[in-house]
Amino acid sequence: MPNRSASRNHPIQPRDETSPHHQERQDRLDFEKLLVELSACFVKVPSEEIDQRIDASLQSLVEFLGNDRSTFFEFSSDRSRIRVTNSVATTGCDTFPVGDFPVSELPWFIEQFREGEFVFLRNVMEELPASADQERKYCLSHGIQSNVAVPLRIGGQALGGLTFAFMRQRCEWSREVIERLNLIGEVFANALLRRKHENELRTALKENSLLRQQLEQDNLYLREQAELTRRYDRIVGHSDAITRVLANVEQVAPTDAPVLLTGETGTGKELIAQTLHELSPRKDRPMIVVNCASLPATLIESELFGRAAGAYTGAASAQVGRFELADGSTLFLDEIGELPLELQAKLLRVLQDGRFERLGSAKTISVDVRIVAATNRDLEVAMRENQFRCDLYHRIIVFPIQVPPLRNRREDIPSLTWAFVETHGRKMGKAIKRIPRSAMQRLQEYPWPGNVRELSNTVERAMILCNSDTLHIEPPSSSRDFSSPSKTLKEVERDQILCVLRDTGWRIRGRGGAAERLDVKPTTLEARMSRLGIKRPNRD
């Protein structure tokens, strides 16, 4: 590349006074060579190397044309900023800062680029228009005496700009030089357009790759969610907690393995048991339900195993037990932890070999029954206290499923609430169209010690009192009682903070505020609220 630094500030001028035409032709040849080399350096170059080639090309231009600094920038989608990507300068001069640059610093100047106007200011201070006050201040503070601006446009689209700044002396270029700079601008415009397209393509490919990976990772989960939506019509909600339960149900349903459902009262264990039965090969026969806690100890044996006529006083006729009714089907033993110890041994025998005798009869009956049991008690504690047989426990816990409390699946509360609204609405002949967002927020904040059953009762009570299509529903007044032993310390803390915040109208600071009520600093309370995910509900 020819080096014209010896003739700074006038790259195309006669050097041999005796042959000006010869020198002019030589200058044109040098420029054409420069133009060809600039064009060639961007051909078939990988997009990631375009920036390096632009730097090298700007350096060649500075050396050839004799100016002090050349800068390359492109427009962004944000019209308040441009993006400076490349800048080179001669020794002793600063480069233009690379990165985002606010349009407000040079509004008139950048607008000329957008309009595709070529700007040649031989004397910046004198030739800038009166409206370009910002440009005048900028050039004065940065020592710019002359400036040449070449817009980069293709097909009417403004892509960016190329500038040539003079700090040490004014530019004395001829109009011929200026016109040739437009050719250089076309070379850079094509390079910029190519870089833009290839960056967009690379970004799109990267996003597609990430999306494909995400889809592959989530595919099983998404299929599972779709399957649950299709098959488990009675069970409302798509939280991770309930989805895991239903996935376990689906796994064990085709087998005959005993299942033990554990969880607090009101979590829907019987509904899970019914779903398990409906997905099993025994679904063509009804599931038989026995609540071990609701029957007197004197009657539960005959209920389970049946009785012969005259088995005890008042038993005038024979009775078929639940095990016989469940032959070929599923027997759901709800609250199995309440089963008397003397009956646990007999139940164990049925689970082991499928045989038993009716009360008052010596005849052995064989049945094929699949057992699903449920309890809200900690059976391991009951075993240590000799209230539950170890051998029976290990027989029924082949496949345990923990049914989560409602407070662990708060994201399901809106769906459950609307499901109960529809159910109770059909019975009462009421059509509810709206529930205030603040009310739904309070339902999600309430700990629900009675779980789904308590939520259903709360909705039903609110609908009885409702006389419009908007349901104003509040959590039970017992929300102030946070002493439930089943709660974690974190849950108790969260519930207590929420209670005080509601009482103070969500006012944290000042006299009578939540921080004073809780005897903590306001900043401490705000930090705890952030840690516990407590946010003020939106107002309707």
What do these coordinates show?
The protein has helices at residues 20-40, 50-65, 107-114, 124-127, 133-142, 175-231, 240-252, 269-278, 297-305, 322-325, 341-353, 379-384, 390-396, 413-428, 437-445, 451-465, 489-503, 514-518, 522-531, and strands at 69-75, 81-89, 99-102, 119-121, 146-154, 157-166, 259-262, 288-291, 330-334, 355-357, 364-366, 370-375, 399-402. It is of the alpha/beta class. The chain has a six-stranded antiparallel β-sheet with strand order 3-2-1-6-5-4, sandwiched between helices. A five-stranded parallel β-sheet has the order 8-9-12-7-13. A two-stranded antiparallel ribbon has the order 10-11. It is elongated, with a radius of gyration of 41 Å. The two termini are 71 Å apart. Residues 1-18, 217-231 and 479-485 have low confidence and may be disordered.
Characteristics of this structure?
13 strands, 6-stranded antiparallel sheet, alpha/beta, disordered N terminus, 46% helix, 540 residues
> What is the helix tally?
19
- Estimate the strand proportion: 5-15%
**How far apart lie the N and C ends?**
71 Å
Overall pLDDT score: 81
User: Helical proportion?
Assistant: 40-55%
